Amino acid sequence: MKKNKKYRWGLNLATLALSSSILFSTIDTASAATYTVKSGDSLSKIGSQYGVSYQTLMKWNNLSTTSIRIGQKLNINAPQVSTTKPKPTTNLVQIAKRQLGVKYKFGGNKPSTGFDCSGYVTYVFNNAGISTARKSAAGFYNTAKKVKSPQVGDLVFFSNTYKAGISHVGIYLGNNQMISASDSGVSIANINSSYWKKHFTGYGRI
After folding, report:
1. Beta carbons of 114 and 108 less than 8 angstroms apart
2. Strand order in the sheet with 177-182
3. Per-residue model confidence as pLDDT tens digits over 96-149
4. What are the LysM domain coordinates in residue numbering (predicted)?
């Protein structure tokens, strides 16, 4: 019985020691992001200790002057700032849809005159900040990376529509939808519709 009490007492001490260790470790980690100003400190001196300039410390702490006081807490890590940017594909799809209804024109590559399928793809990608040279549908097919699981913004290729071989290209919108410049102008179509399914060749990524 005494042996069991000693065992439990030892276990409790070990648990307490572990909890204290975790607590102080947490405190040390939290305090590592700040510095308490001491007598004789300056922003330049503190900055040199942490490998940053005094201007950076001023920016991190929203200071308008280099004056600091003893006991003042200074951030010594850059504050976390959200840098979320719109996905390139989001912008690409927006630009693509703005051209809905633009008429079809063989060899066309701008809204004012009309588009053919490859001219439309070239226009959309370049205006979305993805530089690409003008190519035919077959040219895009030959240079694109072939993928089996398409993502929004990938290219969709079709064969034997108005001529033999790769003859049409569109932009994948997700959910089996694509947008392209066809005979009826820039429009959205279902890849699984009877016509497009019959001519479907594959997907590619620029």
Report:
1. yes
2. 145-147, 200-205, 155-159, 166-174, 177-182, 185-190
3. 999 999 999 999 999 999 999 999 999 999 999 999 999 999 999 999 999 999
4. 33-76
Q: Rounded to an integer, what distance in angstroms lies between the CA atom of residue 114 and that of residue 187?
A: 13
105, amino acid identity: K
Going by their DSSP bridges, the two strands 185-190 and 177-182 should be labelled as antiparallel
CATH superfamily of 88-205: endopeptidase domain like (from Nostoc punctiforme) (3.90.1720.10)
Q: Which CATH number fits domain 34-83: 3.30.70.890, 3.40.190.10, 2.40.10.240, 3.10.350.10?
A: 3.10.350.10
State whether the Cα torsion 154-159-165-170 is positive or negative: negative
Q: What are 10's two structure tokens?
A: 């030892």
